[in-house]
Design goal:
The complex is a heterodimer.
Chain A lengths: L1 H6 L6 H7 L2 H21 L6 H22 L2 H6 L1 H18 L1 E3 L2 E6 L4 E2 L1 H18 L3 H4 L2 H19 L4 H18 L3 H21 L2 H11 L10 H13 L10 H4 L11 H34 L3 H25 L17 H19 L7
Antiparallel strand pairs in A: 1-2, 2-3
Helix pairs in contact in A: 3-4, 3-15, 4-17, 6-7, 6-9, 7-9, 7-10, 7-16, 7-17, 9-10, 10-16, 13-15, 15-16, 15-17, 16-17
Chain B lengths: L1 H42 L1 H12 E6 L6 E2 L5 E13 L7 H12 L3 H13 L6 E7 L1 H9 L7 E10 L7 H4 L2 E3 L2 H6 L1 H6 L5 E3 L2 H5 L1 H5 L3 E7 L5 E8 L7 E2 L4 H10 L5 E7 L5 E7 L5 H4 L4 H8 L9 H4 L9 H10 L8 E4 L2 E4 L2 E4 L7 E4 H7 L2 H11 L1 H10 L22 H8 L5 H7 L10 H12 L29 H16 L18 E7 L6 H6 L13 E8 L6 E7 L5 H33 L1
Parallel strand pairs in B: 2-10
Antiparallel strand pairs in B: 1-8, 2-3, 3-4, 3-5, 6-7, 8-9, 11-12, 11-19, 13-16, 14-15, 17-18, 18-19
Helix pairs in contact in B: 11-24, 15-17, 15-18, 15-22, 16-22, 17-20
The chains are: A mainly alpha, B alpha+beta.
């Protein structure tokens, strides 16, 4: 009988779906949202100003959207895997042709109510697309030249479109998302090792092709003190902010580094710095713990899903989110050169939050419809 | 189907294996990030906290309050006054153009001054203070205050600045203050440490000599600033220490009289206590108003001072190298007595001139003095007598005595960097400096204080003081509470035989108080004020035979060629206490120009003696 209900899972009613929710994940996401809101309030200098309001609105809208997504059957998300990828590719083309230029790069398209950054959406939809691509593939076919070439094209096309914006950081993150799927789909680990080696060998050539400001970033990362008021300023100030936070932090709204405007980009990429300055080591570890639980739940949902599509999506999305977090934190802690990469949910920015929330929604949908098998 | 399900199992195994690999990788990376956080926030916390404070806290130093100069009786001779200033912080002004033009009208600024202000405004950051005017009159200051409602962002400020209430009276002694320049900062540690823009420091005189004591330390304001350097809030105010007040040995009343006496003349007077070495008055004329320099002197004023032919910028008391003329005679006589060349009975016949080594040496009196003893020679300042005894004495022995009494050496040591040493020549010196042998004729003119010998007025004063006190070494001093050198009751004697000093003192008494004495007309008969002295008339050029024949009166000679008039004296004669020296450049004749000044001075000095004494007693009572 039990088996029977499982098989008829497609006919869940609303309350059963509700019961199937992963509440731990939901609570963690809400907690993260609340934390980000408080931090945004602090970046506004302890007042409810533009960033706080806007972040709050987006948080509400996108959380509701996430819940809606999670009620829609995972089958549906499987079915739009390719088409959604193509739509985002189209948007990237649109951006390339008619995008809005801001601070030297053409990343946004104007949708009148929101300025959308399609490259952020691509981080999710490339996973969706590749997960669908590998869903039905037999293990022995995975390592065929044809498959690898196809998936490489799927990854390189958006990367190229994003690099020309120019936005190296996001294109690398898109690559990371795609490679995560390839990894979980079972592509031979040798390829990964070869690619890695090839990358290391070609590193000097890559550096030769970098734009001057990108080269500067790398050099600055290696030695921030070589130009402490120019290129090294961000990383030095960021480290000072984090370091001066101490164990318990300077207290909410009392972060002098951010309050006195020493911190650059405190709303977006460097938002963790401000949080860490005000809440200290304890707060930072707490935030990391929330992220860890979220990633753990995503992976656990993937493990509990029946379809490969859901599994691949959850594992890859978990890995991708993890990489985003790691890269962002390593950057602000001075472990990596500065590349533009937002901290999921925490950073101000609609497209990034939209993409992340869509991801969470699909993960939640795989939980709700975990017994759904996809033909 | 079975095939496919076995493939599914394989796929499942693969994906799960990789999930575990990824999971453990994530775990280690997470640990890496946490340890990085731990390293920055816990281990290196102190370092970054310091850096963060350095970031956000900035210090502003305020100019220290300068110590004052007091005279012996505690009157302020260099003090501080409240300067009325006008500050504007451009950023806080809504309409800068309107406000600045309004201020221009109110203060009646000239176009030149106004342009200067606008230039300054462009050089500073908008949140920094723009000093529109640094020393406003009370009238303008109150005018601004009355219009403040209309002048948003304008701040009337009262700031503390140097003031010399006696104006030109103490200029050469005290010097003056002005804005510190690069040299001042580099050469003086205290200035470097306490430097703020606009800091005023001593440029010459005691203001410079005692810079370290006078300067004081900064008030320090600590502000929290943002990344652009704007002040957010004041965190701390650390009060600095005012510079030390210095009490001088100077008596302002005497100094004032000295100023009056020297008015419109070029010259110098100094008065010294012969036992303590305290300088009671010291002045070089002409002088100038040091207040002009405090806020930067105007070009016109500067040109006026610089181009004055009487050279107000030279401190003649310390820097003036003069031939001592006949004022050297007490030392020549003393030297001859001490070396046993002469005794009181030794006489020389003066015929008005004497031929020696093919040269003619003239006495100032054409007819000659006849037979003169030492006492008479001194009294009438007979040159022939001194030619003869210095010829017998020799310049080397003379120079020994002269140096003993403080000639040829800086009186204040290193206190004033401008002080000159003067010159006491001897044979060795001439050989070294000029490479020529000493001529006997040079000895003779040295004996009447002409030729190579050069002395500063303060040296002559010291010399006289040391003769007056019975031949004991004293160390002149200007700071009242400075007892480093002189130990009370311990005097180093400068003579061989105390009788010789008495003889010289007696001869000087004769010169002033007996008929035929060169300064007889300036005597005071009242024994309370009675003083003894020696006139001097120093030639500034060689007199030709022709001129000697003409025998011109002083006023008939062009100013630059007139003789310097000198006078040294001590009194009261019965119980000497003070010595003085007077030099009037191109004053003509010691007995007519310089000596009468001494008469006026002694009256005041001795009258003030008891007041000075009571001041001392009070000091001991307080202890």
């Amino acid at each position: 009988m039990y088996q029977h209900t499982r098989l008829t899972a497609g006919n869940f009613n609303f309350f059963q779906k509700f019961k199937n929710f992963d509440y731990i994940l939901l609570v963690c996401i809400l907690l993260l949202g609340f934390t980000s809101l408080a931090t945004m309030y602090s970046t506004d200098g302890g007042k409810v100003l533009f960033h706080t309001k806007s972040h709050f609105t987006k948080l509400i809208v996108f959380t509701i959207m996430m819940l809606v997504i999670s009620f829609i059957n995972i089958k549906y998300w499987f079915s739009i895997g390719y088409i959604s990828y193509l739509i985002v590719i189209g948007l990237l083309f649109w951006t390339y042709l008619f995008g809005i230029t801001s601070s030297g790069s053409q990343r946004w398209i104007n949708l009148y109510f929101i300025n959308l950054q399609p490259s952020e959406l691509m981080k999710i939809f490339i996973i969706l697309c590749l997960a669908k691509y590998f869903h039905r593939m037999k293990l022995e076919n995975v390592n065929s030249i044809y498959t690898i070439l196809t998936s490489l094209v799927i990854i390189l096309l958006p990367m190229g479109l994003v690099i020309v914006q120019p936005d190296l950081g996001t294109s690398l993150l898109i690559a990371v998302s795609g490679i995560a799927v390839l990894w979980f789909a079972g592509i031979n680990h040798k390829y990964f090792i070869y690619t890695m080696m090839g990358f290391v060998i070609s590193l000097p050539f890559i550096i030769a092709f970098l734009k001057p400001y990108q080269k500067m970033r790398v050099l600055t990362f290696l030695n921030p003190d070589r130009d402490p008021l120019g290129a090294g300023y961000q990383i030095i100030q960021s480290k000072i902010a984090v370091g001066s936070g101490g164990i318990f932090g300077k207290g909410f709204l009392k972060g002098t580094q951010s309050y006195l405007e020493f911190l650059p980009e405190k709303h977006t990429d460097f938002v963790f710095t401000l949080f860490s300055e005000e809440f200290g080591f304890v707060g930072s570890v707490f935030l990391l713990l929330i992220y860890a639980i979220i990633i753990y739940r995503i992976v656990a949902i993937g493990a509990g899903s029946r379809s490969f599509f859901a599994k691949i999506f959850c594992y890859s999305f978990g890995a991708a989110i993890f990489v985003y977090i790691t890269i962002n934190m390593s950057m602000v802690l001075g472990l990596l050169p500065i590349v533009g990469s937002p901290l999921p949910i925490m950073s101000y920015g609609g497209s990034s939050m939209l993409a992340t929330m869509i991801g969470f929604g699909i993960v939640m949908s795989s939980k709700v419809h975990s017994q759904q098998s996809i033909a | 189907m079975i095939n496919s399900s076995s493939d599914n199992v394989k796929k499942l195994n693969s994906i799960n294996r990789r999930m575990f690999i990824t999971g453990s990788l994530k775990f280690f990376i997470m640990i890496g990030i946490v340890s990085r956080l731990f390293f920055l926030q816990v281990k290196e916390n102190k370092k970054y906290l310091t850096l963060s404070d350095k970031n956000r806290i900035r210090e502003w130093k305020l100019a220290p309050v300068r110590g004052e100069f007091h005279d012996y009786f505690g009157n302020i001779i260099a003090g501080n006054f409240e300067a009325y200033q006008l500050h504007v912080i451009p950023e806080q002004v809504e309409d800068f153009r309107y406000v600045i033009y309004r201020v221009k009208d109110l203060l009646e600024l000239s176009d030149k001054e106004f342009k200067k202000v606008l230039k300054k405004k462009n050089e500073i950051k908008p949140w920094e203070t723009l000093i529109v005017s640094d020393n406003l009159s009370w009238k303008k200051f109150s005018k601004i205050n009355n219009h403040l409602y209309d002048l948003n962002g304008v701040k009337p400020v009262i700031s503390i600045s140097r003031n010399y209430p006696y104006k030109e009276n103490f200029t050469h002694l005290l010097g003056y203050v002005s804005q510190a320049n690069q040299n001042d900062i580099e050469n003086t540690e205290a200035i470097k440490k306490n430097f703020v823009p606009g800091l005023k420091v001593g440029k010459v005189g005691l203001e410079k000599s005692f810079e370290e004591k006078l300067l004081g330390t900064n008030d320090i304001e600590r502000y929290e600033v943002n990344a652009y350097g704007r002040r957010i809030s004041q965190l701390e105010f650390q009060k600095g220490e005012k510079g030390k007040n210095l009490r001088l040995t100077i008596d302002s009343e005497v100094q004032k009289l000295v100023n009056e006496l020297l008015k419109d003349k070029a010259g110098s007077i100094c008065v010294m206590d012969i036992y303590t070495g305290e300088i009671v008055a010291m002045h070089s004329s002409p002088s100038f108003d040091p207040n002009l320099f405090v806020f930067g002197i105007s070009k016109d004023d500067w040109q006026l001072i610089r181009n004055d032919p009487l050279k107000p910028l030279v401190n003649k008391t310390l820097q003036g190298n003069y031939s001592p003329g006949s004022t050297i005679k007490p030392i020549v006589a003393l030297s001859a007595l001490e070396h046993g060349i002469i005794n009181t009975n030794f006489t020389v016949k003066c015929t008005g001139k004497t031929e020696m080594y093919g040269q003619t040496y003239h006495c100032w009196k054409k007819k000659g003095h006849g037979f003169v003893s030492m006492r008479n020679a001194m009294k009438q300042s007979c040159d022939t007598y001194f030619y003869e005894i210095s010829r017998r004495l020799g310049v080397d022995k003379l120079s020994v005595t002269a140096k003993k009494f403080g000639l040829g050496e800086k009186v204040f040591g290193n206190l004033f960097d401008i002080e000159k040493k003067g010159l006491v020549p001897n044979t060795q010196w001439k050989k070294n400096a000029l490479g020529k042998g000493w001529l006997l004729g040079e000895t003779m003119i040295t004996g009447i204080g002409q030729g190579y010998i050069q002395t500063t007025p303060i040296q002559l004063c010291l010399m006289t003081a040391q003769i007056a006190n019975g031949g004991y070494k004293i160390y002149p001093k200007i700071l009242a509470d400075d007892e480093t050198k002189q130990q009370i009751g311990k005097f180093e004697q400068l003579y061989e035989n105390p009788k010789n000093i008495k003889i010289v003192q007696d001869a000087m008494f004769g010169s002033t108080n007996e008929v035929m004495g060169t300064s007889y007309r300036s005597r005071i008969d009242n024994p309370k004020y009675q003083f003894a002295g020696k006139t001097g008339t120093a030639q500034v050029k060689k007199i030709t035979e022709q001129e000697r024949e003409l025998d011109l009166k002083t006023f008939e000679i062009p100013y630059e060629q007139r003789d310097h008039a000198l006078y040294v004296a001590f009194g009261p004669y019965k119980r000497p206490r003070y010595a003085l020296s007077v030099i009037i450049e191109h004053g003509g004749n010691g007995s007519t120009t310089a000596a009468p000044m001494a008469k006026k001075l002694f009256k005041l000095i001795i009258d003030r003696h008891s007041i000075r004494q009571s001041m001392n007693d009070k000091k001991y009572l307080e202890i």
